[in-house]
Write a structure and sequence with these properties.
CATH architecture: Alpha-Beta Barrel
Oligomer: single chain
Order of helices and strands: EHEHEHEHEEHEHEHEH
CATH superfamily: Aldolase class I
Radius of gyration: 16 Å
Number of domains: 1
Number of strands: 9
Number of helices: 8
CATH class: Alpha Beta
Length: about 250
């Protein structure tokens, strides 16, 4: 696990001006319509109200990205049109990669970390310039720390109980993981009981040829990992796959 950058200033992100308060078609945005889900003590006054609108609503998951490749791979993704990237922390060099991507990303791009496992991890990501916290699980302590620092947080959930716990602690969206276990029918059933406008991101088993199926079931965004990037992939290949995903999203008609 990487340790925080001693040389980087502690990030204190401010809520985005004019952030959307409801879901936006074709973007990873929105927040639960029932404000009671952000009423626990963890919901600090500096909590961003909603995920920023992103078009396309596709999050590149760059697990195992070497720090020395971050600039080239990031350029390929940004030129293809991606505007959200997470670098999982369970591989070496993740924090360095996040710092590089945050420094070079186009305006409006959301950069952050995946596999965030502790409040200390959240602090390290903030120090590196990341603003998005994604977890494979629902840990209220992680959500609380992200909210306290004014970061956007999308924890992983595998049950309805976890989903409601995450929302009560101020999560901005829910990562349905592993999505291949749930399938689109499972996502649709979960969506029916959640507050209207709750962003839902299936992660795991998402491919360019099944975006339409997930979207029809109620998905509002997607985390794309191995189908987009594997360690050692060239920036050119990553860019080509990124364009294929974006074309697939456009074909959905969103």
């Amino acid at each position: 696990m990487d340790t925080p950058f001693d040389s980087l200033p502690t990030a204190q992100p401010e809520p985005p001006t004019g952030a959307a308060s409801g879901s936006v078609s074709g973007s990873i945005s929105g927040s639960p319509a029932d404000s009671s889900f952000a009423s626990t003590p963890s919901a600090k006054s500096n909590r961003p109200d909603a995920l920023p609108p992103l078009d396309p609503p596709l999050v590149a998951i760059l697990r195992g990205l070497p720090a020395e490749d971050a600039a080239a791979v990031g350029t390929a993704l940004f030129e293809a049109g991606f505007r959200a990237v997470e670098v999982p922390l369970n591989r070496p060099g993740a924090l360095q990669s996040i710092a590089t991507l945050a420094a070079m990303a186009p305006a409006g791009t959301l950069i952050g970390a995946g596999t965030v496992m502790s409040p200390q991890d959240v602090q390290a990501v903030a120090n590196a310039g990341g603003r998005l916290i994604v977890c494979p699980h629902c840990d209220p302590a992680v959500i609380d720390e992200a909210v306290a620092l004014g970061l956007w947080c999308v924890p992983g959930v595998g049950t309805a109980s976890e989903a409601f716990t995450a929302l009560r602690h101020g999560a901005h969206g829910l990562k349905l993981f592993p999505a291949e276990v749930w399938g689109p029918r499972g996502l649709k059933a979960l969506k029916a009981v959640l507050p209207e406008g709750t962003p839902l991101w299936p992660v795991g088993g998402v491919a360019a040829d099944n975006l339409a199926q997930w979207t029809s079931a109620g998905a509002t965004g997607f985390g794309i990992g191995g189908q987009l990037y594997q360690p050692g992939d060239s920036a050119q290949n990553v860019g080509q796959r990124a364009r294929e995903f974006i074309n697939a999203w456009r074909a959905v008609g969103r």
